[in-house]
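Troubleshooting log. The previous structure file for this entry was overwritten by mistake, so regenerating from the original sequence record. Sequence copied from the archived sheet and checked twice against the printout by T.R.
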Amino acid sequence: MIFHTGSKIRAASFLPLLALCALALAPANARADLSAKQARKAITHMTGFELTNGAVRVKTISNTSATAAEVSAEIRTVFKFEQDKQGSWRVAEIRTGQDRWEDINLLATALKTQAAANECNAPDPPFRGAAALDPSVKRARCLLGSLLGVEVPSDAIRIQEVDPMPIPLASQASAVVVAWLRVDTRLLNGPKGWQVTELRTGNREWVIVDPLVAAVNEEKKKQARADLESIAKALEQFHRDRGSYVVSDRQAVVIDQLNPRYLPQVVRIDPWHQAYKYLGERDRFTLRSIGPDGKENTPDDIILSQSP
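Regenerated output below.
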């Protein structure tokens, strides 16, 4: 009886040790919190953008679940500003990668929104000393705040540089503005790792990235079709005058033949920053944009052709 009781005591004393062993041998917890390095990588490669590591400063990370997180970051962003004939400035383009720019009006159309920036174009007070910048830092901050839903002045928009771009014979003044923007993002950890799924700036609503990119591509398709139709119309006029279409397999050749008499505006690059394709014979031609995927002869190609 005493022996039996001692067995129970000894067995009971091993229970904590067994529990520790079980914990040590159990599979590791599946939760893997998002690190600043992972967040920076996800933001630099979010859909539609190709940014450098130095252009993203991760400020805060909030892991909302094992596979989801919210990240607030400052992103160094480059914009092109343009001035109209009345002297009013507007944000015209945003740089999304090396030598890649997106039209702000196209993005606004995709988002079904429009920036009201009239209040940003009031005359600046008289400037004393060195030559004044135009647009001024204050005006640039106001225009970006209006676009992004940020009440300025605010640390959410910090202007790093305003660089006027004097272009000889240009019809309107322009400038490059570099700014650090506070952007809130939502990330999910899936088969491809952490990816940005939603964005928000200022007091704007959250925007889901993939539908936005799809909407932007739809607007770009409309623009590409319009470009191809204008080239095709010019080719028809050329055919009526010359008795044949431009015979060439090079898009640059056909544009040089059509501009300026038949095609007042030079159209060489499609909305995805790829050259339009042309194949023409005396009695037929094919115009093509290779579309969003950047590959020729795929289902998303946009084609306009004419044949006997």
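Helices lie at 2-25, 36-44, 104-111, 137-148, 209-242, 251-258. Archived copy saved in two places this time.
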